Amino acid sequence: MDRPDDTWLRQRFCSNPFDRIETQPNQDIHFCPAAWQPAAIGSLSDDPESAWNSPKAREIRRSILEGDFSHCSRLECPRIAGRDLPKREAILSSKEMSAAVAWYGEIINSGRTRLEKPPTRASLGHDLSSNTACPSRGTKPVQLKKYDADRLDWIFNEPYARFLAKADRITIGGNGEPFASRHFLNFLKTYCAEAEPRKALDLHTNDLLLTEAVWNRLDLWGHVGSVHVSVDAATPETYAELRPGRHLGQLMPNLYFLGHLRRLKAVDTFQVLFVIRQENFTEMPDFVRLARQVGATGVLFQRFRGQREADACHSVDVADPRHADYEALQLILEDPVLEAPDVIIDDLGPTPQRRDVSGARCSGGMPDQGVQG
């Protein structure tokens, strides 16, 4: 007897296995975050074209086209858990003539599992090098040994710079700091020399190392479409507390530089991020003002999703209704500056919802194509 999830999925389509790859710290390659789809399609040591059409890759594509989704987690995938995948018939009957919708329709009609076209989206997460501690994740600064970084350069940089040269979106960072990574710095330099400028790079950074000099040395002009900067504070004191050994004064010139790039239209999106914690929640309105001061296009506030303490009253997750400062947070949230269109406040409900923050959001459910189901 089919479960409700299985019945719902039988008519659905996910584009990730047909247009996206994601690299992992263990050097595996997946179509999605490993928790959503545990099966790897290959390794960084494989030729990229071979990994893209490996037997496992083709089997996963078959499972999507036949509607069994047998390699996908019903619980962890937000597109499945949130019932956010389009029907195959909705794609086939869509009147939108975008290249993506036409491509998905051709795949559905043909049942094709071997693809000549390389992925249009990639999320590169195989180097977790960082230059700061991250209290939200409980991580410390880390750096690959030179031998390991050199090996990654050798197996990855030139093959993948060519393989992804025509990709529409390449996300780097999020779990590590790309500008603290010798390997990612070398990849960016190789990629920018190999690919035509198409604003494909989507960079996630703490911005402490992304100076104007680094931008010019890597020749990032024309290659970066969006930059997302994790800041988490509006005052020097709180910034120093959350970034031990770092100072807001180090960051500000780099934020102003990104604002300058945005005014020049050299980048399309410059977003600053703020994880809401007990230490910083009173600074939320001032953070919006700081973002506007440096020229950011928007602000994203996110709920703390790290380790939760047994005593909720004393945890850092101030959005927990049991927290002693929960009511104080509700008063802060009433500030009109937080209701502006350039401000996004992620889910602050009593139970944090499973969210897609992987860079896969705009492909699996295809919201960009306007296909509903």
UniProtKB/TrEMBL annotation:
- Span list, region Disordered: 115-139, 347-373
PANTHER family registered for this protein in UniProt: PQQA PEPTIDE CYCLASE, RADICAL SAM DOMAIN PROTEIN
Name of the protein described by the UniProt record: 4Fe4S-binding SPASM domain-containing protein
Species, as recorded: Roseibium aggregatum (strain ATCC 25650 / DSM 13394 / JCM 20685 / NBRC 16684 / NCIMB 2208 / IAM 12614 / B1) (Stappia aggregata)
